[in-house]
Design brief:
Number of helices: 12
Distance between the termini: 87 Å
Number of strands: 11
CATH superfamily of the largest domain: Periplasmic binding protein-like II
Order of helices and strands: HHEHEHEHEEEHEHEHEEHHHEH
């Protein structure tokens, strides 16, 4: 009789056991329930190039941080700032100007990391060789650009608009002294192509993008050349939204910063990421490093 009752009890329990999730299933479910860390970047280059580099970086961060990480592209510089402000992006690769704009609009936002090259960044002025413009020796030589057509990159680009316009002002050049309206190409790659094609006589671009495109032979040096290299300034950096502390813990910002600082060129997978980001390594940074950018932004009306 006892055996009969035990057998019946086992038969009743079997369906319940079959319906219970396994330990591995439970852990998988809990992991997928964690809201992902959403990263973004200002669209300063060709979108396909950005997709490749930031998708690889997201995979690295996911492994280091133990939370899902996604890369979400944006349409333009202003959209990156807005998405950060409303909380759609948690961690964004900003230029100097957009980074300052984001910090001012989101109390508690922190600049946490930049490439080693970003503490002394440069713009270059390029010219179509048929324009007759030759290399400038000093900032005052920028006055020779009067009467020529000229294009910046994005209106909110630090290296493609903000600092170049500042240097032009230092040389005494006003934007209405160029021939026709000044252009805004949208990104550095487009600026290079427009000047190369002769659509504009000259333009200003991110030096690192220029050097990378020259290295990959995407620029026809028979048609376009560098005529001036700017003084250095602080530029690109990662800014993190304070909302991540509520989601992942008070020490999460430090964990993200550490993950960037740990990128090692001796590790092949990490070297690929650094190469795509045009960096030898990442270093720490802080909001106060961008006071010059904020001052220039206010001077030309990009920050109010």
């Amino acid at each position: 009789m006892k055996n009969f009752l035990l057998s019946g009890l086992l038969l009743l329990l079997l369906p319940l056991a079959a319906c219970s999730p396994s330990t591995s299933e439970t852990s998988t479910q809990s992991k997928t329930e964690i809201k992902p860390l959403v990263t973004g970047a200002i669209p300063d280059q060709d979108p396909q190039k950005l997709q490749r580099q930031y998708t690889k970086l997201a995979a690295y961060l996911e492994k280091q941080l133990g939370v899902p990480v996604e890369y979400k592209p944006v349409t333009d510089y202003a959209a990156a700032v807005t998405a950060f402000k409303v909380g759609d992006l948690d961690l964004v690769w900003f230029g100097g100007l957009t980074g300052v704009q984001a910090q001012l609009q989101v109390p508690g936002a922190e600049a946490i990391a930049q490439r080693d090259i970003d503490q002394k960044f440069h713009s270059v002025f390029i010219a179509n060789k048929n324009s007759g413009l030759t290399q400038f020796k000093t900032i005052n030589d920028l006055q020779q650009l009067r009467g020529y057509t000229f294009t910046f990159g994005s209106e909110s680009s630090t290296s493609g608009r903000l600092m170049p316009q500042y240097f032009l002002q230092q040389a005494g050049i006003k934007l209405d002294e160029f021939k026709g309206e000044v252009g805004f190409s949208g990104d550095h790659d487009k600026t290079i192509k427009l000047v190369e094609a002769g659509t504009y006589n000259a333009g200003a671009v991110n030096e690192k993008v220029w050097l990378q495109r020259v290295k990959s032979k995407e620029v026809d040096l028979n048609k376009v050349q560098v005529i001036w290299r700017s003084p250095s300034y602080y530029d690109y950096h990662w800014v993190i939204n304070p909302q991540v502390k509520q989601r992942y813990g008070d020490d999460f910002v430090q964990k993200v910063q550490t993950a960037f600082l740990k990128l090692d060129p001796k590790v092949p997978e990490q070297k690929e990421i650094l190469d795509l980001l045009q960096a030898d390594k990442f270093i720490s940074t802080k909001n106060s490093n961008y006071t010059q950018i904020e001052a220039v932004g206010r001077q030309i009306g990009k920050i109010k």
